[in-house]
Design brief:
Blueprint: E1 8-11, H1 20-32, E2 37-41, H2 46-60, E3 91-95, H3 102-111
Parallel strand pairs: 1-2, 2-3
Helix pairs in contact: 1-2
Length: about 120
């Protein structure tokens, strides 16, 4: 039996102070390298997090950036069900380093709904 191994890359975008151009470059490089799960640091500023999340989503959801050997994965498949994937099957995770309590987390993540975090 062949089993797909999921790779993920952690894009440290707010703590490292990366420009939008650097985020785009790193995301394209990672997806071309076969990564399909992306983790974004959040929590410093919701507007910045939303902008950066939209940048990442615009790349990971676009089949043109997939490696030639990769086909878009079905977001409704058993493997991806419930992961808020886009049309390519890539996942955007968020990490706030446990700085929120539950009500704060719900409030903040609700504001990020547009980027479909998992």
């Amino acid at each position: 039996m062949i089993q797909r191994i999921t790779h993920y890359i952690n894009i440290l975008i707010y703590s490292a102070g990366y420009s939008d151009e650097k985020i785009v470059h790193l995301t394209r490089e990672a997806i071309a390298g076969g990564f399909n799960h992306f983790k974004m640091k959040v929590g410093a500023n919701v507007e910045d997090d939303l902008r950066r999340g939209k940048l990442i989503r615009s790349i990971i959801d676009d089949p043109q950036y997939l490696p030639p050997s990769e086909k878009p994965r079905d977001p409704n498949s058993e493997e991806l069900r419930g992961k808020n994937t886009g049309p390519t099957g890539s996942v955007l995770m968020i990490d706030a380093n446990q700085v929120w309590d539950v009500p704060q987390a719900i409030e903040y993540v609700t504001k990020l709904k547009e980027i479909k975090p998992w």
